[in-house]
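Single-chain item
Fold in token form
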Amino acid sequence: MWEGLRRMSTGVLLDAEMEENDKNKEKEKILLISSVAQLAIATIHVQEVIIPQSLIDTATIFHDILPLLPDEADSIKNRLAQLFETWWRLELEGRERVVPNTLLYLLERSLQAKCTAADVKVVWRLHSVLPMINFDDDSSGPLKNLLGRCCSSYQYLKTDEGRRFLSFAFTVHEGLVECLHKAIKNQMPFAPKSWLPLYGEVYYRAWQRSTDTVQQIIERDCIQDLMNHAVHASRNGCQAMFPILFKVLSYLHRQKKQRGVDAMLLRLYEPILWRSLSVPNTDVRTNSASLLLDAFPLQNPDSTAEEVDLMLQKQFDLMQRLLADPCPVVRAVTGEGVCLLMSEYLDMLPVEVVQTLLRRLLQELVWDASSPSVRLAVVKGITAMLENPLCHFLLKPLLPRLSYCLHDNAEVVRLAMMKLLLKVKSIRAIKYWNICPIEHLLARLEVDSQPIVRRIVELLFPSFMPLDQSPQEQILRCITLIESNPGAARVFWLNVPSHMTLTDTVKFMALVCRYVLESVRQMGHDSDDGTDTSPSGSKRKSSRDVGQQEEQAAEKNEDEDQNLSAEVLQGLLEVIYLMWTAVAKQLDARENMNIKQSLMKKLSVMIPDVLKITQEPRVVSLVIELAGHLPPKAVPSISVTCLSKLRNLTNDSGAGECTELLEAMCRWERASEILQMISDWLKDFLMPTEAPQAVPSKKGGAAKKRVQILAPEENGHPDLAINYLSTMLRSSVCKQMLMEHHLQDCDKLNRLLSHVLVVIKKQLQCENCPESADVDNRILVEQILSLHLRMSVLLHRPEEHCADCVIHMKSILEWGKESLLPCIGALPACKSGDGYLEGENQLISTAENWEWRSKLASNCIVTILDICCNMLMVGFGDKEFAMQLSSFCKDILYTEFDFGMLEILLSTAEELRLVDGVLSVLYQMVLFEDLLASGDVSNSMTHIMTALNMCLRRPSNREPRVSMLDIKSKLCGIVSCLLNTQHSSPDICEGECDQTAKSLTSTLLGAMLEDLHHTSIKDGLPENIQDSPEPLPPLSACILKALSSTAASCRLLVQSLEDRMRSDTMTHPHIVHAAVHLLVTLHASRVFLRHVKLSECIAAATAMVQRIRESEADHHMDPDLHRELLIQIETKFQLMKSKQPENSTS
């Protein structure tokens, strides 16, 4: 039968080869191979099978055509692979003839994207085929490539069979070791962290199962190669290799208990580690210290006891030296590593060594002021030591020395200290309050960040919220916390619901509510008894009885005051309010409505009784805040009077008390009433009523009528209205309710607020200072403008043209350009009168009027810039808006301030506030996508930099230093951001980006040269050149510092400077002086010398100076001054040449 099948298979395969394009022949071939393969699989599975030679020949034929089968015949390939794999596994005759191509196919199948762990297991069953292959032959190249790809396959690393296959491949042939090791090293930088220990396992298994020759190659070329790379690898940055290599080697270190591993590690580390611990490079020392501490103890078990002790003592001495290393990173790594060693080998280490190490850690390193990482390492290390129960008795008297780490300046240290205390909490032998007193914990709870607060609450939760105790005990603990530290208590109760179920939280809130209700009722009852002074009652009682009752009442009142003072009552109400705030979203869920209704019912009973017993302002505020969470019908005593209270508040009292009332009204959906009240109060101020007034006739006839502005009514409170509206826009509760339910009312109010533009314009156009134009009036107008703009942004709805804030802000910018900018310019000339005194009085009057109008205009401009900056930040705007805003900023900077006569009336702080606002807008414009994509940012920067340069050069006798420093810092950040954005923008193609960057750099260079040119004329440039841009004028220093941040910007700056020097525009001695001074500064800067070559630029400067020296053009300068300036230029130029190093890149 098999002879016939062999002939049939041979014939069909030959016919198919002759007629390659015949689909019928191809289909016949596939069907035949499938059928014969199925019959062969059934044949070899028979017990005591006899394999005829014809079957072996047929299988050999199919094996040879396996690589030639098309990709569509995967099922046939898999069936043939199953046949050959079974053939090999059953050790049948001729098995070596049917596996080479099978192994190649199975490897390719296991490397496909859709492979499974079963495919890898099949490959592992054929691993014994590898020794049969001649890897010295060139034909083994495809197999080597496939084995290398297996090293980067997730399926091979995640399955035990896959890792065993890879480690076995290392042991097959010496040539495979280098191939596989190279493949793993190439994959390591990109491998997930979870793969790295698996690579370590592969190396360890390969070393363990290899013979002597291959084992030495694995040690020398693989493991020691990784060790050497790890010692010299980088530790920081996105390409840091040490953490990757450390994870691989750490697996080998964990196998120290296995036979031969200790000796192998000592043998391989010895020529590398001891020398590396003494090198000057801090990264190498740090890497070596990490490896030494992770591999400890390095020893050879076959050595004598004396040799082992000497080796251990050598490592102890190295640890002591590393703990005193001058580099804080080395100290930190060693400190934490030493603690881990003591935790793991405490019973093996000498007592003297342990005491010495702990003394160094807890007396020196924990107080290390040079770096918080050292202190952090000590705390984390001690926490690790607590994992070992043997360390508890040793550390118990030493842990209080760490108490001040709770108050460390670095948050990471405080966080680590809290983790240590939480670890101590689970240890019965040590009490955490003996390490850090409760008072210290409460102090940190009040002021610290949320991660630390969360852990402090977790630590203190069983102490102040004992759920397993009685209700009386819970209340007592609650009151104790309130009396100990009210501020910490607020933070505790706000965060404690996250450690409780909703049921337990609501149950405790109800418990506090019931306790408060009973206490206030008892206080009210005692108060009634104490005030009963009716004569009939006193006559019926003897003096002795009265005295006893008074004494008992006094004692009772004393106890009541002691148990529930006003502070405690306030604290208990805060507990209810804060816990409600924490679980408000859960209570609003539909499934929790019954719980919420029950709690609301208890609160509605408690609130009126509390208001009867006390009128303390803070208690009343808390009651109103709680009432806001209840339906208005449940608290009629509050809900009915809220609006009247808001109407009757004064501005001073309303500033602190109105928030609770406003939020309660908004929660009750009564915000429309508040908005109407605000509109009524502001309407008279913004839209004053005009009435005719009789004016006597000059001829004595009937009086004529003219228009007069009436004063607002007495019941109007515009300042209080502004206070309420500002509070509502600040409150998240009010703002959410306004945006969700009262958009139309807000639109109506905002239209009323827009009349402030008319009010401001009228006040700015008055020739004389308005009578009502006092400071309070001006501030009120500015606040209304700010609220109008803020509401316009909040009500932004692009789909509605009338509610589009971008369109509205464009009109605001036009209005500001027309009405505000003319009022911040120079002091207008005043006309002199008949006498000197009259002219002086007119001058003073004009100055005062101008001062008032200028402050109003400048403050309004700052408000507009701030709103525009926020709009750009959140993405509101388009290209037209951004360009209009850029033009507005340019006009601000070009405005001429007059500081000669008004130095007392108006300091430079006014102008610097405007400059600061312009810079904030400019920063957001740099990041604004539409403007950046349009390519117009460089053009805008040209105008703004020129105007800014003029603005910062204006004379002033009293320049505020702090504001100037802030402006310099902000300007430097803007330029750096602008350059980085230009280079990294995905919206600009490469050529356009380079052209834009060149144009921008040329603009910045022009601003620097203009700044230095002006300084050269006015004050002269310094002769001593430093290696930093700080001595330069403010604008030049900022720009140069930003341009030196990247190599690309350095090259562009030098190229632009060289082009300017070669141009014909550099003819004036002062501008040449500015260019030479800038070049000398660049030459002195190591940053520029590291990135660029200045030789071509120096040559251009030489030609420029030579042209100036030979030129006889008239520069309208004094000849002596001209000669002195040329001497300064020549001196700086020669000084730069003399300091040029021979091997410098220049």
